[in-house]
Amino acid sequence: MKLAYYPGCSLKGTSFEYEVSLLKVLEALNIEIQEIPDWNCCGASAAHNLNHNLSVALPARNLAIAENSGFEEVLAPCAACSSRLKTAKYEMAGDDILKKRITDSLEMPYNNSLNISNMLEFLLNIAGKEKIKSLVKKPLSGLKVASYYGCLLVRPPKVMQFDDAEKPVSMDELVALTDAVPVDYSYKTECCGAINSLSKPDVVMALTGKILYDMKEHGADLVVVACPLCHSNLDVRQREIERKYAEKIGLPVLFITELLGLSFGFSPKELAIDGHMVNADKVLEKIL
Amino acid sequence: MKTVINEQQRRNFVGEVESKLHDKLAKCYQCGKCSAGCPVNFEMDYTPNQIIKMAELGMIDNVLNSKTIWLCVSCNTCSTRCPKGFEVAGIMDVLREIAARRGIKSKTEKEIQTFHEVFLDNVKSNGRIFELELVGKYKLKTKHLFRDMFLAPKMIEKGKLKMHSDKVSNINQIAKIFKDFE
To answer: Quick one: which of A75, A166, A269, B144 has the fewest CB in 10 Å?
Structure first.
């Protein structure tokens, strides 16, 4: 099966650490992926906020290119991208008129046949737990890890068709494979404020602060995510939240692929963990 | 608050919302579950269930000028939990689109609206997001030149801010998509 890779804009910019680490991990798992040729932005939140048809047409171009290149499966590691690609597929399946308008505009045949996976789905379904477990050379024993799912991996469930929308477990299962300890806490699927980070920073810091302090109170050493925007809000804004609420957090935020990579024996540098704003050295000393 | 409602206007508005939403406003029985779980309810002027009822009543100006429609972050907690399966997050998209098409600029949440507009412009011209340009243009438009700037030096040091854009080669096709659907 030919596996397509839709990186999206964040993985080529502010969240380059996610791409570096997922490429390392997939190489170790011996899974070959190919970038969708000449892919474009999925439109993200802006498109569906302002123009429904555009929010379907923009991701549809990527899906059509992938389908016409012979791919059957698309990995979209960014939770927002995977949500927009899945939503476009869902909308076109239920709206023949819009689908025809889009294929006419793209001047490409399109059957809406691709399967789209977020990072967690891809790791669990394509690689599988056994294979992942077999590559763990450096068990992360004793490390307490809070998995943060946020919104778009699981909601809305009728479109995402992944895990449980209120109590997801897939990321915790991946964490457990590394021998780290999954931390139970209250806000696994509470929103971090998402795209309003620049336009409504006070609201975003209130939401993100609530999540981070709750993880801390439940004993987490670090956080894992599978979304660049969640990462950005939890990591880049953390110092400011500490200042605002005058209480230290000090929680490094890793992508799930970085945590798996560490357990596979890659160094933090190979996984670009030094690219994060919150320094992870002290926490990782415990296990490395 | 306007209390006398023009029935014809009301019906037209409900028709417009429902045809874009592919759902019926009357489905909502006002239990309030959407508003209870909304993570940004504390900032809103009307709760999500109020917005649904107001749209159904034809309180067009109140709805299209509300803070709520722009504050909604589309986390979809509401739609996921709605016992009637109503598209709560979906109606926020529809109302934002109608407001934008009518040229209504949010007075209280113009930064959120502007961010989305600048973001889409960036997609239109590059096919992909060029983050530095996006942030620069957003700051110029909102005149918040210095807010968050303290983050920039460390982000550059970490390699998070790319200095060049990475355009889609077939930019004509992107232009065509915008032309056909804008």
So the answer is: A269
- A150 to chain B: nearest residue by CA? B75
CATH dotted code for A3-119: 1.20.1050.140
Of B109, B159, B170, Cβ closest to residue A275 = B159
Domains A3-119 and A136-285 share a fold: no
CB distance A181 to A143 below 8 Å: yes
Sign of the alpha-carbon torsion through A268, A272, A274, A280: negative
DSSP letter assigned to residue A129? H
Q: For the segment A62-93, what is each residue's pLDDT rounded down to a tens digit?
A: 999 999 999 999 999 999 999 999 999 999 99
Contact between residue A201 and residue B115 where contact means Cβ atoms under 8 Å apart: no
Rounded to 5 degrees, φ, ψ at B2 are -70, 125
For chain A, domain boundaries: 3-119, 136-285
Nearest to B93 among A49, A152, A200 (CB): A49
Q: Are B47 and B68 in contact (CB under 8 A)?
A: yes
Contact B181 A51 (CB under 8 A): yes
Prediction pTM value: 0.96
Contacting residues of A for B151, CB less than 8 Å apart: 236
Checking ipTM against 0.90, whether it exceeds it is yes
The verdict on A93 touching B (C-beta cutoff 8 Å) is no
| Beta-carbon contacts of residue A185 (< 8 Å; ≥ 6 apart) | A146, A214, A215, A217, A218, A220
Q: What gap in Å lies between CA A279 and CA A116, rounded to an integer?
A: 33
Mind listing the pLDDT tens digit for each residue in A259-278?
A: 999 999 999 999 999 999 99
Which amino acid does the sequence have at A239?
A: R
Interface contact B19, partner A, CB < 8 A: no
* Residue A255 β-bridge partners: A225
CATH class of the domain whose range is A136-285? alpha beta
CA dihedral B122, B127, B131, B132 (to 10 degrees): -70
Q: How confident is the model at residue A155 (pLDDT cuts 50, 70, 90)?
A: very high
Provide the 3-class DSSP secondary structure of residue A19: helix
Contacts of B143 (CB under 8 A, 6+ apart): none
Query: What integer pLDDT is reported at residue B2 of this predicted model?
Result: 55
On whether the CB atoms of residues A192 and A207 are closer than 8 A, the answer is yes
* Helix (H) and strand (E) counts in chain A: 14, 8
Is the pLDDT score of A288 beyond 90? no
Establish if A51 touches chain B: CB-CB under 8 angstroms: yes
CA distance A72 to chain B (A): 23
Question: In angstroms, rounded to a whole number, what is the distance separating the alpha carbons of residues A150 and A132?
Answer: 24
